[in-house]
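Re: the 261-residue chain
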Amino acid sequence: MSESQPQEPEVRETPDTDKAPQPKEKRGKTYNIREVDEYQGEPRFYGNQYTQVGEVVDMWADLIDGFGAKADEFAAAFDEDLKSRAIQRSTQRNDKLTSTGFSAPSRSMNFLKRGPVTVTLYLAKQGEDLYVSMRTFVQGKVSDLRIAVFTIIALLVAIPFSSSYDLYYGARVSFERFIGAFVVISIILFLLIAIYGIQNRRGDYLALLREPLHELLYDDAVSLSKAVFKSVLAAADKVGIDTAKIEKPEPFYAPRHRRRI
């Protein structure tokens, strides 16, 4: 009977904590804020600011000394505060505002839109300083009623061009000719609408199709502008800027050369 061999003690490897996978560090959003005189992206073949957001009715801007290095931190604090306001029926996004004309440059801005009112916030560096600019735009939305009216006009005008006279059957309307005439007349009408907008409404080729603006929109514009400005103050306070030194906006209802909505 053979003697049993002594079993070697089982050796268990302890996990090397130095080699254990570490959780990835979360990085904050990068806003890629540039110098004031720089544009972003390739110029568009043609851009029109009045078609994109409408006409400027208010503007405020300030240059904050010595805080250019905190531009990204300021932008993040602004986003956070503006979202916390939970403004009903509004949309907030980062997008590019395009200038008007051919080979149009653009700049990235924060857009807050509610109905016909859009408020943009532009952040940029100027050397060691932080530039903050806010603009308020108004633009009537494209009216379904106006589109229907122009469509009916095109239909009525197309009927005479699609009818023919037959010796036996009298006046007859050809469906194929009617469709062709309607398409041609619709194109002509749209071109006339576009030409009017380009010539008389600063290039907004859809101006004749938009709903008219009215005086009650002042409250919409002021309330949205105030919300954005208060978020600017909150962001400034969070990054250590003395808000008492920030230039206050001119009263909306009494600026010089105010354009009527």
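Residues 175-200 form the longest helix (26 residues).
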